[in-house]
Structure formats: C-alpha cells, structure tokens
Amino acid sequence: MRTGNRSCETGNADRNPRALRALFTAVAARYDFLNHLLSLGLDFGWRRRAVAALRLKGEAPLVLDMACGTADVALAVARRFPWARIVAEDFTSAMLERGAEKIRRHGLRARIFPVLASCEAIPHPDRTFNAAIIAFGIRNVENRPKGLSELVRVLKPGGRLVVLEFSPPGWRLLCRAYCRYVLPLVAGRFSNPHAYRYLARSIEEFPDDARFRSLMRAAGCVKIVQKRLFPGLVTLHVGHRPHL
Ligand SMILES: C[S@@+](CC[C@H](N)C(=O)[O-])C[C@H]1O[C@@H](n2cnc3c(N)ncnc32)[C@H](O)[C@@H]1O
Fold first, then answer.
1. Is 140 in the pocket of ligand 1 (CB under 6 A)?
2. pLDDT digit string, tens, across residues 6-29
3. Taking the CB of residue 217, how many other CB atoms lie within 10 A of it?
4. pTM, full prediction
C-alpha cells in the first residue's frame, strides 16, 4: 500500500469553486485539443474503458455523467449503449456549452441532456439513476466526501458508480517532471499555463488508491474494485450503491 504524499496531506491545490470555474472557462476552447495532445491520445482509451465499466443492462437506463466538461464521456456512453439516456452535468457553463454543441452536432439531443449543476448539490431526487460516472472530475471537487455521497444518493439500489481519475504519480520522477515542466510548457503554447500548473498540482495532491477507496466506502459504496489503467497514473474505481 502506498502512502499519500506530503502535498496530499496539506491539500495545496486550489479547489475553490469560483476559481475553478474561471480556470475551466479559460481553457474550455482548447480543452479537447490539449487533452488528446497531452495524453498522446491515450485519454480516448481510458474513457472507453470507464464507459464499458458501467455495464448497463435493462431498458432505457438513465446515466449521470457528472463533471461532464465537453461531453466526451456522455457521447461515448451514448455510442456504446444505444438504448441509454444520459444527463450530463457540469458547473462551468463554458465547458457545458461546448458539450451541448457537440451533442447537437452528433444528433444526440434526444438522448443526452446537459444540466448546469454542482457535484456537491446534485439537483435530482434520491435513487434516480441506474449508473453514474465521473471522469477526471472528482479530483477538482472541493468537498469530495460530499460529492461522492451525492453521487451515491442519486443512484438506484445496486447502481454502479464509475470514477476515472489520475492517481498520484507512481513513476514519481518521470511523471513529476512531465506534470511540472512539460505539461505547463506545452499547454502554455496553446492555452492557459496557470490552469495546467493547477492540473499538475491537483494530480500530485490526489489521494492514493487506498485512501480513495476509503472515501468511496465512507460515501456508502460497496463492492469497490480498483484497476490501474496506466501504471502509476490513471485508475478506474468502481463501486455500487447497496441493494437495501
Ligand atoms: C478535467 S475536466 C473533465 C471533463 C470530462 N469529464 C472529461 O473526461 O474530459 C473537469 C470538469 O469538472 C468540472 N467540475 C469541477 N468541479 C465540479 C463540481 N464541483 N461540480 C460539477 N462540475 C465540476 C469542471 O467544470 C470541468 O468541466
């Protein structure tokens, strides 16, 4: 079991919602392009595997894509499960607007519904969704225990919660060098370098797998399974709302 690093204990990344909204507003126009560039295209596969982990069954399941950003996950859910309907939520309108435009372009307005909302106050009744997914979002949520318990609250009994997230770098030196120097440098050429410095800090600060598993359990998840998708950098965490 790895232990959390020091910056994880001090929580030095700025997750203040106002600052975060400003930051994601600043990067919205270049978000997709930089995502694919900085991950060398690996992000497509990570999202695909996270979406597959939803394992949707039954007629017209309803899925929540929280912190949906520009809606890549919602679109992937719609493609993989053609009978699913998806509510795509984010608290940054600039990101959500880009997502809504992509949903329109793909002709999926009848199946994907964008909503401006925060993960810490999800505007739906208990037991609404068959499954929920949050990709590269929970790291940014200011009150993670609250965000996770909201995600569990809106799941139907037995529903799945899929969390795709960076993990604190396992290959410490290489990943740290990439996150601290390469990432802001490349991002600075195309977008806002400050935003990508935040991204690097927030990855280093994020709890390791064991601690995140405890957070999921405390939020009410059972049958938690964690899988490293990219050694030492990206983890898929899957949990369930209990049947009772
Ligand atoms: C790194 S992006 C991930 C977007 C998308 N899920 C993806 O896979 O590309 C993080 C998103 O989380 C959103 N976000 C951060 N904190 C949030 C919160 N508390 N509630 C809702 N959305 C939040 C941001 O606005 C941003 O669009």
1. yes
2. 333 223 346 789 889 998 998 898
3. 13
4. 0.89
